[in-house]
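Q: Could you fold this chain for me?
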Amino acid sequence: MSAAAASELSREAQTAGLLAKDKAGTIAGDLRGMMSIEQGPVFLRFLGFTTSLASFGCVIFELINPTNLVHPVMYVLYAYIALFALSTTLFEAKKEWIESVGPLASYQEMLATHCQFISLMGGRGLFYIFQGTLWLTFADSLVEIVQIACAGALVFVGFLHLLAHCGIMPHEVMQRATHHAEMASGKDINGDGQIGAAPVAASSPA
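A: Sure. Below is the predicted structure, expressed as structure tokens.
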């Protein structure tokens, strides 16, 4: 093979490599655009976001507690809880906020790809409940009010996410609870002038 032919083959190989790289980048960009994150109504997202931040804040509070120095293993567990809390906030925040910060967008994409359950409200609901059970492992008595409060809030938010995943929104839960309470007590609890009025079904979008 002549030197000219070898040089031509080398240029063709380089061109093919560049085209393949560009195509791979385009496909990756398309996949990022196709990434779907299931989110609930604004109120539910706000609850999830603030509860996760509160969980992270409680971790900081516990880490600066000098009595925990005698239990170094606890620091590892607190680090896990902090990571879990910050990770869930990414899926409750506005998409535009996350996309404006490159590293956060990449981390969110990685989680959505390898931990697909967290991109669904039902999966996040179970994940919130799991985080709540982690906090309960630190609550060995009623004195541990911080841990108990975090656990209760996370489990509550997780339960709401599970209901939302099944198509039941938080306001519908309140309506149904009020309905059954009025039927049981015979009193007009919500002040609508009716006792035990049937909950109003959510209208489906046109």
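A (continued): Confidence is low (pLDDT under 50) at residues 24-34, 202-206.
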